[in-house]
Specification:
Elements (H helix, E strand, L loop, with lengths): L1 E7 L7 E7 L6 E10 L2 H8 L9 E2 L3 E9 L11 E4 L9 H5 L9 H6 L9 E3 L2 E2 L1 E2 L9 E5 L3 E4 L5 H4 L5 H12 L7 E5 L3 H12 L4 E5 L3 H10 L3 E3 L5 H8 L7 E4 L4 H9 L7 E4 L13 H5 L3 E4 L7 H13 L9 E5 L4 H9 L5 E5 L2
Parallel strand pairs: 4-9, 12-13, 12-15, 13-14, 15-16, 16-17, 18-19
Antiparallel strand pairs: 1-2, 1-4, 2-7, 3-5, 3-10, 3-19, 5-6, 6-11, 7-8
Bound molecules: nicotinamide-adenine-dinucleotide and zinc ion (2 copies).
Nicotinamide-adenine-dinucleotide binds next to α5 and α6.
């Protein structure tokens, strides 16, 4: 079949929206008709060419949600018509990591996914007979895509796609970090560095867990305002003395839980320092530039602080994303407020511009 898709032809050039060929799903694969897709920093980072592991030509996009249109041989957990959220982080349930129950880092298809292929080492996308690579195993800047069954979370079909697509990446990363990775305790004090989609997700998760104080640091006044709307109890401007700002608000002790959601290693250091003496737990979510390192004064660790990180906030996609969709449907997660702009696929480059200008929180592409 032919589908319109946003193709990365060359780094640092606008994406080209064009018709490409999409082959039917093979064994263990599913054809998904995409209904909505968020525009995430990782798409822009790859398109810029700065990410050394990036590749082109490929169909970008990874924050998608849609409807199953066809299934390949042996697919048992999904059927035509099911509503799904696309996962860059699969959950096979069979690999050593999945079976351990200790991590969401499923190893089943990692190697091929990182190279831009489906698990069998080939692509379903092509152009003029030449293969076109998949991106993050998802490629959701397209009217339809083919993905592995183990990378699709089946969700409540009543949920609006434009809201739940954000659970494919940014929103879940923050929410899950607070809910499942850090397991924020009721009555605790939380400090969140950065109030983009990831940081605001952590605000939502901390609120859901019953945190008493949620301090949010962000130099952007608009982002601080957003944080207050989503449940922050106090906002601070952050900056070079971000850790001190948290200490000043917590009797010099620090917060029970800190979350870093900026991607800046200097801020990661602040988030470690702002974790409470004795038991503070710092969760790093931002993706730092390649080669950058995080320096931690060992005394912070000896005196009881702990540091962890979480890809996708530690969420196990097929298990947790449907639960988050249900929380949203129960009115417990305000996802609608996170959508700032609705775009068509043809406006995908505008989505990058808006992100670059820090205009709004999330641009969502909707497909008619
Ligand atoms: N762990 C994962 O799986 C995962 C998933 C998605 C995104 N990410 C990463 O998470 C990070 C945040 O993503 P986002 O979409 O929310 O980004 P974003 O750019 O929308 O938000 C970052 C925020 O940090 C703020 N900031 C800048 N300097 C600051 C400082 N000194 N102190 C406090 N805040 C400061 C900015 O004003 C901005 O509001 C990025 O690095 C992104 O790549 C990680
Ligand atoms: Zn993303
Ligand atoms: Zn697995």
């Amino acid at each position: 079949m032919q589908v319109r898709a946003a193709v990365l032809d060359a780094f640092a050039q606008p994406l080209v929206v064009q018709s490409v060929d999409l082959a039917p799903p093979r064994a263990g694969e599913v054809l998904v008709r995409i209904r909505a897709c968020g525009v995430c920093h990782t798409d822009m980072y790859t398109a810029s060419g700065v990410d050394p592991s990036g590749y082109c030509d490929c169909v970008l996009g990874h924050e998608g949600a849609g409807v199953v249109e066809a299934i390949g041989e042996g697919v048992t957990s999904l059927k035509v018509g099911d509503h799904v959220v696309c996962l860059f982080s699969p959950e096979c349930g069979q690999c050593v990591n999945c079976k351990s129950g200790k991590t969401n880092i499923c190893t089943a298809i990692r190697a091929q996914q990182n190279l831009g292929f489906l698990p069998d080492g080939t692509t379903r996308f092509s152009r003029s007979g030449k293969p076109l690579k998949h991106f993050m195993g998802t490629s959701t800047f397209a009217e339809a895509t083919v993905m592995p069954e183990i990378a699709l979370a089946k969700v409540n079909p009543s949920a609006p796609m434009e809201a739940i697509c954000m659970l494919a990446c940014g929103a879940t990363t923050g929410i899950a970090a607070a809910l499942y990775k850090a397991e924020v305790e009721e009555g605790s004090t939380v400090a969140i560095f950065g109030a983009g989609l990831v940081g605001l997700g952590a605000v939502l998760g901390a609120k859901l867990r019953g945190a008493e104080r949620i301090l949010v640091l962000d130099p952007s006044a608009a982002r601080r305002e957003a944080a207050l709307q989503f449940g922050a109890t106090e906002v601070l401007s952050g900056g070079d003395d971000g850790a001190q700002q948290v200490l000043d608000q917590t009797d010099g002790l620090g917060a029970d839980y800190t979350f870093e959601a900026t991607g800046l290693v200097s801020v990661m250091g602040q988030a470690v320092e702002a974790a409470r003496l004795g038991w503070g737990l710092c969760t790093i979510l931002g993706v730092a530039g390649r080669g950058e390192t995080l320096n931690i004064i060992p005394r912070f660790l000896i005196t009881g602080r702990k540091v962890q990180g979480g890809s996708f906030g530690g969420a196990k996609g097929r298990t947790h994303v449907p639960q988050l969709v249900d929380l949203y449907m129960d009115g417990k997660l305000d996802l609608d407020g996170l959508i700032s702009h609705r775009l068509s696929l043809d406006e995908v480059n505008r989505g990058f511009e808006l992100m670059h200008e820090q205009d709004g929180i999330r641009s969502v592409i909707t497909f008619s």
